[in-house]
Structure formats: C-alpha cells, structure tokens
Design goal:
Layout (H helix, E strand, L loop, with lengths): L1 H16 L10 H22 L2 H26 L5 H5 L1 H6 L10 H21 L7 H21 L6 H8 L1 H12 L2 H12 L14 E7 L18 H9 L2 E6 L7 H10 L13 H4 L8 H7 L3 E5 L9 H4 L7 E3 L9 E2 L2 E2 L1 H14 L4 E6 L14 H7 L9 H26 L4 E7 L6 H7 L6 E7 L7 E2 L2 E2 L3 H15 L1
Parallel strand pairs: 1-7, 1-8, 2-10, 2-11, 3-4, 3-7
Antiparallel strand pairs: 2-9, 5-6, 8-9
Length: 495
C-alpha cells in the first residue's frame, strides 16, 4: 500500500510540476529526479505520521503551495520560481508587504480554509498503521541519494527561461539549488568576481562629486501610451537634452529583483556572466575579492555612501556593501522624520538627504541612492478621480487606475530631479549625476492591454562641468560604470 501511494505521489508530482514544461522532451535524469524527490517527501511524511493516505495528501499539498506561488510569480513577474527564491523565503515574513499582496487572494483564502479541513479529516479518518520502519527508512535514504545525485548532475544552462520549459519546475528548482552550493561552482563564481575589470581612473586634478540614483521601477512611462500628460517628466527631459549619454537601458530584471540590476551597475558585470548566481549574487558572495565602481572611487579619494530609505538587511545588502566599497550605508534608521508618499519614504526626502551630504562633505563624494517611493504593490494605494484626470492627457480618455498611481509617483520622481538640478546649478563644485530605472513596474495587465513588450528602463548621465553633446545611446546597465569613469577622467584632464 505504502509503495503504491509513494509511486502515485511521484507520478502526480511529475505531471503537475511539468504543467508548463515540454514533458516529452524532458531528459531521463529530470524525470528520475522528480520521482525521487516526491518519493523522499512522501516517505518522510509517512515516517512522521504513520498514515499512508495522509502522507500522500500532505505531499500533494506541499506541491500545491509551490505551484500556486510559481503561478503567481509567472503572472506578476513573468518568471518562474528559481532556487534563489527559496533562499529568500525569510524575507516574506520580514517584509510581508513586498510579497504577500501579489499572491492570488482567492487561492490563498481557499487554501487557508481547505488545508486545515483536509488535514483534520484525514488525520481523524485514517488511523495510525504499522509500517515497516527499515523499509521506509531505506526508501528515504535511497530516494534522497538518487535525488541529490540527479540534481547535482542534471545538465542546466543557468538560464531559467530556457531550462523551465525543458525540464519543468521541480527539476529546475532542485538542480539550481543543489548545484549552486557545489564547491566547484562556488569557486568558479569567486574566480569570476576576482577577475572583474573596470576602466582605470586618471590621477590628476580635481574630482567631481558623483551621484547615481537607482530609481525604483522607473521608466519613461510615456513610451507606453500618449494618454499620459507629456510634461509629467519635464525636468527629466531637460536632463536628457543636456546629458552626455541617455537612452533606453537593458536591465536583467522585470517587475522586481532590483539586486540583479544593482549588482551589474556596481560591478560593471553582465548578469548572465554570473551563471547560476545571477539571480541572488549577494547571498553567495563571501568577502568577495572584486573590483567595483565604489572601490575604484575609494582608491581615488572618494567617500562612498549608499542611501536606501528601507531596512538595510533587505536582500542582505548589509552583509556585502562594505566589501563592495561603501564607507557608509544610510538606511531607514536615518529617515525617522522624513516625509512619505504612500507607504514609503518619498523621493523628495531622498533628494534632501543627498544634497545635505554633499554640502557637508569636505572631500569628493560618491552617493548611490536606491529609492523606494515607487515600490509596489501599487494597487494597495488610494487615488482620487481628480488625480487621475490631472495625470491624463487632455486629448485622451481616463487612464488605468494602477497606471495612474504609478504615474503619480513618476511625477514625484521628476520633482526630485528638479530639486537636484537646482542644487547642482547653484553649487560651485563640479558634479556628475547618473539616473536609471532598476526595472519596469509589475504592471503586466496594463502592459498587455497596451501591447507593450519592451523590458528596457531608461537612463541618463549628466554633469554640470562639461559641455555635453547629448548622445542618444541605448545600452546595458553594466556599461554605465565605464561611462561614469570616462566622464570623471575627462574632467580631470580639463582641470
């Protein structure tokens, strides 16, 4: 009986986990891996409860939860679950607002009601049975060993968008997770970091202050539709007109996962070059020996500061930012009295903090500001009909509610840029401003409605001390550090 139910569990798990996969093309190793995983989970449940049917139900319920979360992520972020998501599970409880509202409310309510009922009935109806402990323990050990071996040896591309349709969800999760911790892969990752190269700065003359703003979910929303008032980004347009470089920015994230874009900017490395570790590089970095833009600037005499008006342990930044080259990390603890717009610290408050730091500094300063105001979920915020109308072009109909909420924040981002431009215009110190969006907002339904398929955000690099010949340059996030060093070197040669 137990063996039959174990096989049934494995079969159901395999079929359900490959609901989006091309099952007929699945490798034998992937099939064996999923069967071994299912049998191991079922056997552990059987050992724990001594109820074969209940063990089956529990195993399938666990799979159901994984599938619901996977479907939610696919719908919201256009990406399946990856192994790094399992490593970030604690953040769901630490920062629930950033995760739980994206789950399908109906599914979660049904699950919350159904699971206790099913489990309670199953426990009540099915009595404990005598099981052959040596056999079940052997099954646990055997299936566990087979699972580990298959997960370790399964051939993957390190690109989840390619592996997921080919292997299915469970095989991808297992292989990515196990292989991420393999000693050889970890060493290769450390070698990749250690061999990173950035342009070398010149050694002569005065250094300009550098401010780079990683703007939460920013892109030029007017690319989506002309229904939005065109002057919503008036100051942004001025910066782009006067910028040294501006254009669309290819980023390795969509809707979330800021850290992927962030690390590519700080390191100048292509996200795909990180292999298995591209999805959560901070977790696997142990005192990294890597050259980064902040480190390069430190060596030239800059004070390097990160500003992020949120908890510093989000994404584990507090564990790696010092080794990435930051002298100081200013987090939410420094924004107790700051104004908020919506649930998060406003962009205006971040601008105030930036200018205060620059004014008080007695040495060249590099400020990397990670904003939060425009962070979702946007649908939880309120907006008046009059506000929606004010954001809409006079020649257009009323725009979507979530899009209006997003656009309202973008208008505030433009106001932040206006604050900074006023400061850079009046200051006598040379200064350089870089600005980019970390990823597009998680507005899948809105984008689909408009037929918008681009994954690119937008950026510009501007200075107050070099006459610019604005160059339209669509590029990738990892190219921005080179642009910045090039401009710093130009200023030094002119001084």
């Amino acid at each position: 009986m137990s063996m039959i139910l174990s096989g049934l569990t494995a079969s159901v798990c395999y079929v359900m986990s490959n609901q989006h996969g091309q099952t007929s093309n699945c490798s034998l190793k992937a099939i064996v891996l999923v069967f071994a995983l299912a049998m191991c989970i079922y056997s552990v449940c059987l050992l724990t409860f001594q109820r074969p049917v209940f063990a089956l139900i529990t195993s399938l319920c666990l799979l159901g939860v994984v599938l619901i979360v996977n479907k939610t992520k696919m719908n919201t972020l256009r990406e399946p679950l990856v192994a790094s998501d399992l490593l970030m599970y604690a953040q769901v409880f630490r920062f629930p607002r950033l995760y739980l509202p994206f789950l399908n409310i109906t599914s979660m309510i049904v699950l919350a009601i159904a699971l206790p009922v099913i489990i309670g009935v199953a426990l009540y109806v099915e009595e404990r049975q005598d099981i052959h402990y040596p056999v079940i323990i052997l099954l646990v050990l055997t299936s566990g060993a087979v699972f580990f071996w298959m997960a370790k040896s399964l051939k993957i591309s390190s690109d989840i968008t390619k592996d997921y349709p080919r292997l299915g969800l469970l095989a991808c999760l297992a292989a990515y997770f196990v292989q991420s911790f393999a000693v050889t892969n970890r060493q290769n990752f450390e070698d990749i970091l250690a061999n990173n190269v950035l342009p070398v700065g010149a050694d002569d003359a005065e250094l300009a202050d550098i401010v780079v703003i990683q703007s939460e979910s920013f892109f030029d929303v007017r690319r989506l539709t002309h229904d939005i008032r065109w002057d919503i980004l008036e100051t942004y347009d001025e910066f782009c007109t006067e910028a040294h470089h501006t254009g669309k920015l290819n980023v390795p994230a969509w809707g979330a996962n800021t850290l992927r874009t962030e690390f590519s900017f700080l390191s100048g490395m292509k996200n795909r070059d990180l292999g298995l570790y591209r999805y959560y590089p901070y977790f696997f970095m142990q005192q990294p020996n890597i050259l980064t833009l902040p480190k390069l600037l430190q060596e030239k005499g800059y004070k390097t500061i990160c500003i992020h008006p949120y908890e510093k342990d989000f994404f584990g930044r507090h564990q790696v930012f010092e080794t990435l080259g930051f002298d100081e990390f200013i987090d939410i603890q420094h924004f107790h009295d700051a104004d908020r717009f919506g649930p998060y610290v406003s962009d205006a408050s971040v601008a105030n903090k930036i200018t205060a730091l620059l004014e008080s500094s007695d040495q060249p300063t590099f400020v990397f500001a990670i904003t939060m105001e425009n962070h979702g979920p946007l649908y939880l915020e309120d907006i008046e009909e009059s506000e929606i109308e004010a954001l809409t072009s006079k020649t257009a109909g009323k725009i979507d509610r979530d899009l209006a909420i997003y656009t309202r924040h973008i208008e505030n981002t433009d106001a932040m840029l206006k604050q900074l431009k006023a400061y850079f215009t009046r200051t006598k110190k040379p200064a350089l401003l870089g600005f980019y969006g970390d990823h597009l907002p998680a507005l899948s339904g809105c984008f689909d409605a408009y037929g918008f398929t681009s994954n690119d955000s937008d950026y510009f690099i501007w200075s107050n001390y070099i006459e610019a010949q604005s160059e339209k340059c669509d590029c990738a996030i990892e190219q921005l550090p080179s642009f910045i060093v090039e401009l710093v070197n130009s200023a030094k040669k002119m001084a």
